[in-house]
Fold this protein.
Amino acid sequence: MAVLHYFQRPGAEGGPVSLLRSAQAVLGGVRALHRELCYSVSWTGASPPNPQETQLLHWLFGCPFESGDVATESFLCPGPTDLLVEIGPRLNFSTPFSTNVVSVCRAAGLGCVDRVECSRRYLLQCARHPTPPEEAALVAVLSDRMTEQRYEEPIRSFALATRRAPTWHVDVLGGGRTELERANQELGLAFDSWDLDFYTELFKKYGRNPTSVECFDLAQSNSEHSRHWFFKGRLQVDGKEVSESLFESIMRTQEKSNPNNVIKFSDNSSAIQGRAVCSLWPRDPSRPSRFEKRKSTRHVIFTAETHNFPTGVAPFSGAATGTGGRIRDVQCTGRGAHVIAGTAGYSFGNLHIPGYPLPWEDPALPYPKNYAQPLQVALRASDGASDYGNKFGEPVLAGFARSFGQRLPNGQRREWIKPIMFSGGIGAMEDIHVHKEPPEPGMLVVKVGGPVYRIGVGGSSASSIQVQGDNTSELDFRAVQRGDPEMEQKMNRVLRGCVERRKANPICSLHDQGAGGNGNVLKELSDPAGAVIYASRFQLGDPTLSVLEIWGAEYQESNALLLRPTDAALLQRLGQRERCPVNIVGTIARDGRIVLVDDLEAPVTDVAPVKPSGKKTPVDLQLEWVLGKMPQKEFVLSHSSPALHRLCLPPGLSVGDALERVLRLPAVASKRYLTNKVDRSVTGLVAQQQCVGPLHTPLADVAVVALSPFETVGAATALGEQPLKGLIDPGAGGPAGRGGGRSPTWSLPASPTCGT
């Protein structure tokens, strides 16, 4: 096996102007920046590529309209004072780029290619050679430290040392809560005092010590992020207990006012009553066949989620995977559903655009080092969400963007330090697929989608921390995911093939993988029956993964489902057709326990609903302990009155000046940086997209989609948000602005710090 290098020269324009300016801000003597791409190809053939294979590789990596733009030698020639820097992806996992390029190479007949990674090589022409600290600063502005690294020399091998971290026991029986606190710190679990007390007593009650994997599992699966303790908790306000939780209040409203609901608060999405529509169906979704018109009752799906913490740490990747996770919510409604369109929204702090000062921005206010600046969030988060939707094939039809930051008269700061990244989705589902089937002993537990990577490890607990910054920077960066929208579309086609079998749909139950990874999704899927899961059955993208990482990593583009053994061959045939992994990882049991068998060293050949003797079980939990009737958390709150001042205009501010300031607000200003880079009409079901008018300039106030290309029935949705009013009068944030009705002559103090 060898690693071959192919260099691609970009255009004559050289390096991006923005990167040159960033480099000049670090080192004033940078005169120019040039770049090239380097494709590192893992070649498994016994001999080097022959002339025909070499020509094909050049053609694949080059521009079809240019000749000579790909070579086996670098195009960059550094001088004595210049700096040559190569930046590429971290090498402990194959990137989504590699997955897709390898697929293309094999389809083109290059079967000896098993990995391809692309790096960027920058030549900075400097007046003097940078010092080591200056080099490190230049590398920082040229790379994303979460997903990339500097290559000190060309890649020689993709081989990794396969050494897995061991599983260990936390001595709760011997050391009590103190030992659990130590594990909490080492693993970054974000357990609060209630969690530490509860789990200490739980394992003492059952007379055994938890493993490190179980502690990590409980921290992710039962975090605020995953279980919404505050939303479902007991509230005490000013010493008086509130009669019902926030969740109960909303449920009561829904029960009385919305008889149109088909699914509510019991699935990955909610659904409302749809209509009978005529649409196209393949005669046999599992193989090439003719399409036929058929009539069916199709319901409308709405879902929404935020991805705030990951977007704050890594705007592009965090927002991209926020879109991907929400798409999977739509996919996994009932026994499978269709994705139609998305909506998006962003709230961030003061932008501080270089060379564009705004009078309400205070440049002295600091930002956490492990969080992206608001300007990066505004640009890169919207880039990430748009990029994912464009590559998957989902249009974005509506959205919002808001910037705010202010210091109150009492010195308190109100600003979105942790940003809001909102993603909403519209979909459709067949009436016959509304209800999931309960798990039955003997059903197969199946993972569909991308392989396991060391991605999103601890994301659930990291985003649940009460005070952002309490966690370490490295744990924060380890917790953020990376997205592969092409793999998500492959998985979508597999699920669509199942749904299009209508009554013969092989999927019994379906859940998307999100926070907590396999540990969370497989518990939810198997509850209350329980399941036995085998670690060796997961397809690994990184052979060095530990059992804890296999069980807890929130790697993307993965769903879990149940099906009967007689349907396994059909699902695997669909997966092979779409080049999407399908792995049978376990079997539903009948004892109410979730058991993970560590058989990585000696895989168990038969997947049975009982754990094999002699095998380690890093996870062995009664589902009732961790998903059943767990006690509510209690939250003690008190009212506080905001410090408000009467609104008064600054001296000398004219009407024209005030108007100019208002028009500069991101909430008011042009949204072209959001709308013009995202697809707004793909699928053929979009009746009203983001922009209206002959020039597609104004923004529409509603998004409309059809349920079928042959019908004029569908769904309409709109986004409305004005959170700043709630800072003066919280009631003003209620329906139709009902509340205390305080006079509008009061000034707005500031915005909330974050959302979850």
